[in-house]
């Protein structure tokens, strides 16, 4: 069973610390399974934990949080209270979240009675628990079902913005609490822009349409992309490009193994596209982690040294983007289990090249 406390204590040991302070909403939620906009979570090298919270969340925290030793209400000077906690936990060297700590917060923390050491904390969230995988699966199902639903609608004549709005509403109707990012709806030549923002461009017969969407379900994200041809008046070159991207992506997924690096997976996808003479048009990394944030660790990129381990959740999303012509991207969210079995969270969304078959 995955033990979050052990992961934190291991990080403390790895960085030669006496304890760590989690102040970011993301990391606090990950550990506590409790959402609050403010709070100081201390964990020391023996695994003892104290959560300092204000009056807005105190009674809810007492009721809901099960995995900390003590919950303290802030009822006085913040600096004095933090120093009391640091002393109580016997922390001399305290790790802080280098990825999330703002300059003013860093200056404040340096004024405490402790030595401060920035350390990388996002890696705490890289391995997902069963509960997290279940939430990620539901978020993926909502986005996948929305892709299938939008492909059944007559899209010719609608604007990119109209389609983006329909997608957002439908995901809410299916149980999402919101988008994990603004939907990307890119038609025709706009498909050459990897992170295109929807415009008032009208979707036309023959357009290759790229839709990249995701939603949030119980604070966990999904991310999926499908490209498909709308109508019948299309350029045959788009078939060739689509097949290249699809085969690149399928190879990347099929060849994932425990112990590979992010670079290894990126190279599988990228080499296939290069071999088919489109290498210069694959202009971004192959993938990224997905969890509480839609972009997190591990990175699946040419320089990634992350070793793939069980229950790392990440995307595989090669693409080809040709200026003044268009583009194709196909993205699935996957993980590999302890038996080396790959699971595709977004497998319910069809990959048919044509909108309607």
Shape: elongated
- Largest sheet, described in full? 6 strands, mixed
What are the low-pLDDT stretches, counting only 5+ consecutive residues below 50?
none
Strand order, main sheet: write it out. Answer: 4-3-2-1-5-6
Q: How are helices and strands ordered from N to C?
A: HEHEEHEHEHEHHEEEEEEHHEEEEEEE
At CATH level 2, the architecture of the largest domain is Alpha-Beta Complex
How many whole angstroms does the radius of gyration measure?
23 Å
What structural class is derived from the secondary structure elements? alpha+beta
* Chain-averaged pLDDT: 97
Helical content (DSSP H or I, runs of 4+):
25-40%
Question: What is the CATH topology of the largest domain?
Answer: Creatine Amidinohydrolase
Can you tell me the CATH class of the largest domain?
Alpha Beta
Q: How many domains in all? A: 2
What is the name of the CATH superfamily of the largest domain?
A: Creatinase/methionine aminopeptidase superfamily
Total number of beta strands = 19
Protein name: Aminopeptidase P family protein
GO molecular function, one term: metalloexopeptidase activity
Pfam families: Creatinase_N, Peptidase_M24
InterPro entries: Creatin/AminoP/Spt16_N, Creatinase/aminopeptidase-like, Creatinase_N, Pept_M24, Pept_M24_MAP, Peptidase_M24B, Peptidase_M24B_aminopep-P_CS
Write the layout of secondary structure elements.
Layout lengths: L3 H11 L4 E4 L2 H8 L7 E5 L4 E5 L4 H7 L5 E4 L4 H11 L4 E5 L5 H8 L4 E5 L10 H21 L9 H14 L4 E2 L4 E4 L20 E6 L1 E3 L2 E2 L2 E6 L7 H18 L7 H14 L11 E3 L6 E5 L12 E4 L2 E4 L3 E4 L2 E5 L5 E3 L13
Parallel strand pairs: 1-5, 3-4, 5-6
Antiparallel strand pairs: 1-2, 2-3, 7-10, 8-9, 9-12, 10-11, 13-14, 15-18, 16-17, 18-19
Helix pairs in contact: 6-7, 8-9
